[in-house]
Amino acid sequence: QDARLYEEWKWFRCPTLVEVLEEFPSVALPPALLLSHLPLLQPRHYSVSSAPGPSPAEIHLTVAVVTYHSQDGQGPLHYGVCSSWLARLQPGDTVPAFIRGAPSFRLPPDPEAPCLLVGPGTGVAPFRSFWQHRLHQLRAGGGPLGRMVLVFGCRSSALDHIYRQEMAEAQEAGALSQVLTAFSREPGTPK
């Protein structure tokens, strides 16, 4: 009866529907009614993290598998719906997907134009395709390239800097001019 208490309970607990029904067994819903009122699962949008030139028959995604405990880390373990499903796939499994274009998010048409790529904790996936494209241009004998500086942040250099080696190779080849990183959860370093 107290909307504020309900909101606090909801945000602290983050319960799944099953957990709500288990906590309140007096709520007896006929399965048909329940299923007819559940919203459809919304599509998950991921950035393509590969360029078509170096891998024309493939599309790469960079996906973090989401797991978390509610109730300040003391509650039950929750799993990301799509990321957990993707992590369980086996080679050859079919993935229902679609491509949604982003016509304004692309490299400039002039390869000599300088580029500043900034990913402040939002992920490095879409920028990977940019340095892969530039690297492919260089290997195909393309002309001079403008400076490309990547600034990106994530939580931990040990866990989240997954393209470290690839970035270093792109820098060595001249596809990336500079990589500037920021890590928010490094052991022994203030946030």
From TrEMBL:
Its cofactor is (6R)-L-erythro-5,6,7,8-tetrahydrobiopterin; FAD; FMN; heme b. Keywords: Calmodulin-binding, FAD, Flavoprotein, FMN, Heme, Iron, Metal-binding, NADP, Oxidoreductase. Residues 1-108 form the FAD-binding FR-type domain. InterPro entries: CysJ-like_FAD-binding (IPR003097), FAD-bd_FR_type (IPR017927), Flavoprot_Pyr_Nucl_cyt_Rdtase (IPR001709), FNR_nucleotide-bd (IPR039261), NADPH_Cyt_P450_Rdtase_alpha (IPR023173), NOS (IPR050607), OxRdtase_FAD/NAD-bd (IPR001433), Riboflavin_synthase-like_b-brl (IPR017938). It catalyses: 2 L-arginine + 3 NADPH + 4 O2 + H(+) = 2 L-citrulline + 2 nitric oxide + 3 NADP(+) + 4 H2O. PROSITE patterns: FAD_FR (PS51384). The keyword Kinase does not apply. Pfam families: FAD_binding_1, NAD_binding_1. Gene3D superfamilies: NADPH-cytochrome p450 Reductase, Chain A, domain 3, Nucleotide-binding domain of ferredoxin-NADP reductase (FNR) module, Translation factors. Its EC number is 1.14.13.39. GO terms for molecular function: calmodulin binding; metal ion binding; nitric-oxide synthase activity. It is an enzyme of class 1 (oxidoreductase). Belongs to the NOS family. This is nitric-oxide synthase (NADPH). The lineage of its organism: Eukaryota, Metazoa, Chordata, Craniata, Vertebrata.
